[in-house]
Design a protein that fits this description.
Blueprint (H helix, E strand, L loop, with lengths): L4 H14 L6 H12 L6 H8 L3 H13 L3 E4 L8 E4 L3 H29 L5 H28 L3 H29 L1
Antiparallel strand pairs: 1-2
């Protein structure tokens, strides 16, 4: 299985970006290859296309399965496992965000809650707890917001994203109007 230069460029770039999103480079490349292929691929197909070992592919696929980003299927009369992405692009984005929240944000919130329950022993700890409270409140707000986003349909999310800076301009205008009335 060979990739066209356009597809290879995408797959290689996605591998580099994957390392910034919580995957290693190879896992990112495997995922990119699966995203742009219409038909499910076998581990051998993936290994050949990416010029990597079958063992490396196997480890990468296990990682993607732990993130709930790929699923395995079988074809009648064929003993091989076939891998494809799980869901549409929006579903994948929501899954990555949810998994990162579980792996990164939730443990941080737990630590912060524990630290905030303790009484500060001195002024230094009191100041540190105030800062921890700010971090906690920010992460808690982001978590609640992401939960609401997670329940939206892809169409609604797309519309929300299109609002973009237009929404912030409306909020800024509302704030200016309220401030001018209160002055």
């Amino acid at each position: 299985m060979t990739m066209s230069p356009k597809i290879e460029s995408f797959v290689m770039h996605f591998g580099e970006m994957g390392s910034r999103w919580g995957f290693n480079r190879t896992v990112g490349q495997i995922y990119a290859l699966l995203v742009i292929h219409e038909e499910p691929l076998t581990a051998n197909d993936i290994a050949t296309a990416l010029s990597i070992s079958r063992g490396n592919v196997s480890m990468g696929l296990k990682e993607l399965q732990s993130w709930r980003l790929v699923h395995v299927s079988h074809q009648p009369g064929d003993r091989k496992d076939y891998y494809s992405t799980a869901g549409q692009i929006w579903d994948m984005a929501k899954t990555v965000f949810e998994e990162r929240r579980k792996r990164e944000i939730d443990p941080t919130l737990s630590l912060l809650r524990d630290q905030l329950l303790d009484t500060a022993a001195n002024q230094e700890e009191k100041y540190a707890q105030e800062r921890m409270r700010e971090i906690h409140d920010l992460l808690e707000g982001l978590t609640q917001w992401s939960t609401e986003l997670h329940s939206m349909s892809p169409e609604t999310l797309h519309k929300l994203m299109k609002l973009g800076s237009g929404f912030s301009k409306v909020v800024d205008m509302k704030d200016r109007l309220l401030n001018s009335k209160n002055s």
